[in-house]
TrEMBL record:
Compositionally biased residues, Polar residues: 470-483
TM ranges: none
InterPro entries from the UniProt entry: c-di-AMP_regulator, YbbR
Region annotation (Disordered) ranges: 410-483
Cited Pfam families: YbbR (PF07949)
Record's compositionally biased regions (Low complexity): 423-455
Protein name (Swiss-Prot/TrEMBL): YbbR-like domain-containing protein
C-alpha cells in the first residue's frame, strides 16, 4: 500500500481529482433560479393573536381591539418552516403612553430565524382605552350551611378591618354591588370559626366580576358559633335567715340582667333567671358578697359566671300597717262572696324590717289575698296570703283569718220560682198554728232567725235555710254584727 501511494502516477491522479473538486465548489452559484425553486417554500397562518404591550394597567384598561387576530404569509426553507413553532410568530401593538379614547395603530411582528414575512392582513388595528378607577367598599361575609343542632351563627367579623379597595375601568365600577366572601359553617359545633377567605366583587345578580382587582384580596374572618342565648332579668333568691335583730336595708347586685345559653325550647320558657341564691345565715354584717351564677333548669351556661352583691343591714323594727284591703281571688264562676268578719274587708298587719325600708313602705307595697278557689256556697274561714317586699318579713306566726260568706244567686232564684205543692190534710190543719208561731217569732225579733242561719253557714252545710229575701237580710245582719 505504501509503495502504491508513493508511486508518481498515483499521486498525479489524486492531485487531479482534488483540483476538479475545488473548481466545482468555487464555481457553484446558490442563487441560480433552479436552486431557489428547489429549496424555498411558503406557509400561511390564518389567525395569529394580536397582543397588547406597553399598557399601564393601573391607569388604563383596553376596552376594544379590532381585529384581535391577523392573517400572516411567511416564506423560508421547508426545513425552517417545519421546525418553527407557531408560538414563534408574534404580533403585537404598542400601547405605551396612549391616552383615553380610540387609536389606530400599526402592528408589529416577530418571526423565527431565517423566515421572512410576505404579507400580513390587516396591518393596522383600532383600539379603545378606558381610564381605571378605584373605589372603597365594605367587605360583607356571609355564611352557608347550618351549624350543629341547636347552635346559632353570630355576626362574622373581618380582620384587620372590613375596608376593601376595588379597581376597575370606570364604566364597569358601577356594576359592583357587593364585595365579600362566603364561609361554610355546615355542621360546625365550635365556639368560633377562624378562616382566611378570598374576597371577590359581585354584581347585582350575584355573579362574580372576575377581572376586578381587590386590595386586600384575602382577609381573616371570625364567625361566632354559639348556642341560642337570651338576656333575662336577674332575680335574687334567698335561703336561711338573718340573725335575730337584723334586717336588710338594701341589696344591690352588680348587674341587673344576665345572658343564658341553652336549647331554644328551654329559653322560650324562661322569663327571668333565679339561679342567684344568697344564704342569709352567712351574712353577718353589711358589705359585698361574691355570688356564683350556675346554669339551672336545663341551661348550659350563664354570663357572667360571678357577680357581686352589696348588702346593707340595719337593726330590725316592727310596725303595724292598718286597714289593708283584702282581695278575694279564685271565686268560682256564678258565685258571689261577701266579707262576714271583718265586714269592711280590711285587716291590720304587723311587719318587720329595716327602719329605712319601713319608712317608705305603703299599703300599695303589700298584697293581702283571700284564696276562694274551689270553695262552695256557705260561710268559710279563709287564711290569708300576705305578699311583702323581699326585704320585709311578716310580724305574725300564723297568717290571719277572715270569714267569708259565699252564695249562689242562680240556685236561690230557681228555688224561689218553684211552685209549692199542696200539703196533706193533717199538715193543713197545723198550718194556721205554724203561721201564728211564725208571727210570734217575727214579733220576737229577726235576730234569732239570723243566728240560726249563721249557725248553719258556719257548719259548712252550704244549704240555704231561708228564701232569697231572708238570705239578703241575714247577710246584712251578719255584716252588721261583724261590724
Amino acid at each position: 500500500m505504501d509503495k502504491w501511494l508513493n508511486h508518481p502516477t498515483s499521486l498525479k491522479i489524486i492531485s487531479l481529482a482534488l483540483a476538479l473538486l475545488l473548481w466545482a465548489v468555487v464555481h457553484f452559484d446558490p442563487e441560480s433560479p433552479s436552486t431557489v425553486t428547489a429549496t424555498t417554500d411558503t406557509k400561511i397562518y390564518e389567525a395569529v393573536t394580536i397582543h397588547a404591550e406597553g399598557l399601564d394597567e393601573k391607569a388604563m384598561a383596553l376596552r376594544v381591539m379590532e381585529p384581535s387576530v391577523v392573517r400572516m404569509m411567511v416564506e423560508g426553507s421547508r426545513s425552517d418552516l417545519l421546525s418553527a413553532s407557531p408560538d414563534a410568530y408574534k404580533v403585537w401593538v404598542d400601547l405605551s403612553g396612549l391616552s383615553e379614547g380610540e387609536h389606530e395603530l400599526t402592528l408589529r411582528y416577530e418571526l423565527p430565524s431565517r423566515v421572512r414575512l410576505r404579507d400580513i392582513s390587516p396591518s393596522r388595528v383600532k383600539v379603545e382605552l378606558v381610564s381605571v378607577q378605584t373605589k372603597e367598599f365594605v367587605a360583607e361575609v356571609k355564611t352557608s350551611g347550618q351549624p350543629a343542632n341547636g347552635y346559632k351563627v353570630g355576626t362574622p367579623i373581618v380582620k384587620p378591618n372590613s375596608r376593601v379597595f376595588v379597581t376597575l375601568p370606570k364604566d364597569r365600577l358601577d356594576r359592583v354591588a357587593m364585595v365579600g366572601a362566603i364561609v361554610n359553617v355546615d355542621g360546625v359545633d365550635e365556639n368560633l370559626v377562624e378562616k382566611k377567605v378570598r374576597l371577590a366583587a359581585y354584581d347585582a345578580n350575584g355573579k362574580e366580576i372576575s377581572d376586578a382587582v381587590l386590595n386586600p384580596n384575602v382577609v381573616e374572618v371570625e364567625v361566632p358559633i354559639t348556642l341560642p342565648f337570651k338576656s333575662l332579668p336577674l332575680q335574687l333568691s334567698y335561703t336561711g335567715k338573718l340573725q335575730n335583730g337584723l334586717s336588710i336595708a338594701s341589696i344591690q347586685p352588680s348587674v341587673d340582667t344576665v345572658t343564658v345559653y341553652g336549647p331554644q325550647e328551654v329559653l322560650d320558657q324562661l322569663e327571668f333567671y333565679d339561679g342567684a341564691v344568697i344564704n342569709l345565715a352567712a351574712v353577718k354584717e353589711s358589705g359585698t358578697i361574691p355570688l356564683e351564677l350556675k346554669p339551672t333548669n336545663g341551661l348550659t351556661a350563664v354570663e357572667p359566671k360571678q357577680i357581686e352583691v352589696n348588702v346593707e343591714l340595719e337593726p330590725s323594727e316592727t310596725v303595724t300597717l292598718p286597714q289593708l284591703e283584702v282581695t278575694m281571688a279564685g271565686l268560682s264562676e256564678g258565685l258571689e262572696a261577701a266579707f262576714a268578719e271583718p265586714a269592711d274587708g280590711t285587716i291590720d298587719i304587723q311587719v318587720t324590717g329595716a327602719p329605712s325600708v319601713l319608712a317608705e313602705l305603703t299599703a300599695k307595697d303589700v298584697q293581702v289575698i283571700a284564696d276562694l278557689n274551689g270553695l262552695p256556697p256557705g260561710q268559710h274561714e279563709v287564711r290569708l296570703d300576705v305578699h311583702l317586699p323581699s326585704s320585709v318579713t311578716p310580724g305574725f306566726a300564723q297568717p290571719p283569718v277572715v270569714s267569708i260568706h259565699i252564695t249562689d244567686p242562680a240556685k236561690e232564684a230557681s228555688a224561689e220560682a218553684e211552685p209549692q205543692e199542696p200539703a196533706p190534710e193533717g199538715e193543713q190543719a197545723e198550718q194556721p198554728q205554724a203561721e201564728m208561731e211564725g208571727g210570734s217569732q217575727a214579733e220576737g225579733g229577726e235576730a234569732a232567725g239570723t243566728g240560726n242561719s249563721s249557725g248553719k253557714a258556719a257548719d259548712g252545710t252550704g244549704e240555704a235555710a231561708a228564701e232569697p229575701r231572708q238570705n239578703g237580710t241575714n247577710e246584712g245582719q251578719e255584716s252588721g254584727n261583724a261590724g
